[in-house]
Amino acid sequence: MSHQGVVAACSDAVTMIDRSVRLARRNVDTLFVSLLLPLLMMALFVYVFGGAINTGTEYVNYVVPGILLLTTGYGASSTAMVVADDMNSGMIDRLRSLPIHSFAVLTGHVVASVARNATSTAIVILASLAMGFRPEGGVVDWLAAIGLLLLYVVALSWLAAGLGVIAKSVESASTLSFFMLFLPYLSSAFVQPESMPSWLRPISEHQPITPVIETVRSLLIGTPMENNGRIALAWCCGLLLFSVVLATSLYRRRTNR
Amino acid sequence: MIVEATGLKKSYGATEVLTGVDLSVAEGSVLALLGPNGAGKTTTVRILTTLTRPDSGTATIAGYDVLREPARVRGVISLTGQFAAVDENQTGRENLVMVGRLMHLGRRTARRRTTELLEQFGLTDAMDRRVKTYSGGMRRKLDLAMSLIAHPQVIFLDEPTNGLDPASRSAMWDAIVELVRDGTTILLTTQYLEEADRLADRIVLLDQGRIVASGTADALKTQIGGERIELRFTDEVQLLKAAGVLSGVVDQLVLNVPSDGTAAHLHQVLDVLRDNGLTPERVSSHRPTLDDVFLALTA
């Protein structure tokens, strides 16, 4: 790509980010749901189920990192729906008939998704502090935890964008992204994998969400880190790479019929 | 020729949508692709606007190949599709500026063009309202305005008035006529004969993925021939007498006499009637409408 090409591509991306963020801000329903549901889930687990679950620590401290991942799951699944809505509207034909790089459209959606997720995650963290979450981590630990969560959110947003691209409707995007909402329940988010039946434990221990949660837990509440940091980073980077390639190639295929 | 297409073919699975379409549009002219639903109009437009790849065939727009230089083609065309391609949750102004920026107009130029187009399409009062509050006619106008922001060389309009009420349709026609006056090349698709007749210099009749006829509206009407003089009588006696001296087809109290449309022939017919003491109540000359052409060629 020539120098001018790069400048044009960046300018396209900025215009598309501007658009997606504006649309996200105005899509009050989506914003509300991706915020309200995690808050309700957190209240449910802390106040209702939490008393019956033994994790060896104060349950609220145990569960908050899991709730954060759950929040990103909700955020990402709404991204899949937003992208699907766009792909199935007349707008995508206009965008495609413009001389812009195809990357720009998805970049716009992903950046808006990350911004929305970051906002809801921040609000969930504030709410959790009000519910009694008492992290012990210092500034560096917090920065590391936020960095990892951001990386995870970016990767998940690209994956969601890819799902949105292949979905034939908003409804099917919501169905396709169901696993993003479901996977946290099969992780160490709410209960320790040790308490699960033997056939489920390996699934729980070796899926991407568990090491991310364990890393955040270790950074914020001081549980042992073991190998989790490295495994979490590997999962996130791998997922990011895979998702970017998947989403852009699906976009090209979908838009070249 | 600013638009040239040769041998365009496209199938979806076992369904052949286009079976070899050739098209050319002269710069500054308006071509209407006329045909019923499923004739292949939209597929043709999608191929020419780089949105769909043909299975075979070639096409160039302003000299750029749609398959090999799609980015260059996109730089000189604009597409207004069947469904208004506008962001519901952006205002009219935001939609326009966005497309201007994506066409790589500078920030200032994009804003200036936005103001001009809002004015031109009578949307200035609504410019800061979200598009979801717009009527169907306003959306189409905004859609067309978005297409025009960077002065495209060729404008593709896919059924521009589909689903509009008569007043909005008429306003849309005026807007298109305005563009034509500025010398823009337009390729439009339509199911409405009246629309093609009114807007287009040349009409291409498409049916089941192939071209069944093409030419000016007049040429098409002449092509199926059938120009006739209608003689209406007040009673059957006169009618039958007239049918005896002129060859024609009787339809109730009307005698349809085939004609070549010249004044000389009309004279001749009237002379024959006068010589036989016959006075029809009404005389009219009837040319086939595009409807007749359409039915004759696609039936």
What oligomeric state is this?
heterodimer
Unreliable stretches of chain A, pLDDT < 50, 5 or more residues?
A: none
| Domain count of chain A | 1
Q: What radius of gyration of chain B results from the CA coordinates? A: 24 Å
Number of helical runs of chain B? 11
CATH homologous superfamily label of the largest domain in chain B: P-loop containing nucleotide triphosphate hydrolases
Q: Between the first and last Cα atoms of chain B, what is the distance in angstroms?
A: 31 Å
Radius of gyration of chain A: 19 Å
- Annotation field: number of helices of chain A: 11
CATH fold category name of the largest domain in chain B: Rossmann fold
Query: SSE order of chain A in H/E notation?
Result: HHHHHHHHHHH
Strand content of chain B: 25-35%
The amount of helix of chain B comes to 25-40%
Measured by DSSP, the beta-strand proportion of chain A falls in under 5%
Largest sheet of chain A: none
Membrane topology (chain B): Peripheral membrane protein
Domain ABC transporter (chain B): 3-233
InterPro entries (chain B): AAA+_ATPase (IPR003593), ABC_transporter-like_ATP-bd (IPR003439), ABC_transporter-like_CS (IPR017871), ABC_transporter_ATP-binding (IPR050763), DrrA (IPR005894), DrrA1/2-like_C (IPR025302), P-loop_NTPase (IPR027417)
Keywords (chain B): Antibiotic resistance, ATP-binding, Cell membrane, Membrane, Nucleotide-binding, Translocase, Transport
Which key terms come to mind for this protein?
heterodimer, A: 257 residues, mainly alpha, 11 helices, 76% helix, elongated, B: 299 residues, Rossmann fold, Alpha-Beta Plaits, 2 domains, 4-stranded antiparallel β-sheet, ATP binding (chain B), ABC_transporter-like_CS (chain B), cell membrane (chain B), ATP-binding (chain B), translocase (chain B)
Compact overview of the structure:
Chain A is mainly α.
What does this protein look like?
The complex is a heterodimer of chains A (257) and B (299). Chain A has 257 residues and is mainly α. Helix content of chain A is 76%, strand content 0%. Chain A contains 11 helices and no strands. Chain A has helices at 3-26, 28-49, 59-87, 91-96, 102-130, 139-166, 170-176, 178-182, 201-206, 209-221, 228-254. Chain A is elongated and about 60 Å long. The relative contact order of chain A is 0.14. The model of chain A has no long low-confidence stretch (mean pLDDT 87). Chain B has 299 residues and is α/β, with parallel strands linked by helices. Chain B folds into 2 domains: 3-222, Rossmann fold, CATH 3.40.50.300; 226-287, Alpha-Beta Plaits (2-Layer Sandwich). Chain B is built from 11 helices and 14 strands. In chain B, helix 3 (92-102) crosses helix 4 and helix 3 (92-102) packs parallel to helix 5. The mean pLDDT of chain B is 87. The interface between A and B is medium-sized, with 26 and 30 residues. Chain A: Its main location: membrane. Chain A: Residues 29-254 form the ABC transmembrane type-2 domain. Chain A: It comes from Kribbella soli. Chain A: It is found in: Cell membrane; Membrane. Chain A: Belongs to the ABC-2 integral membrane protein family.
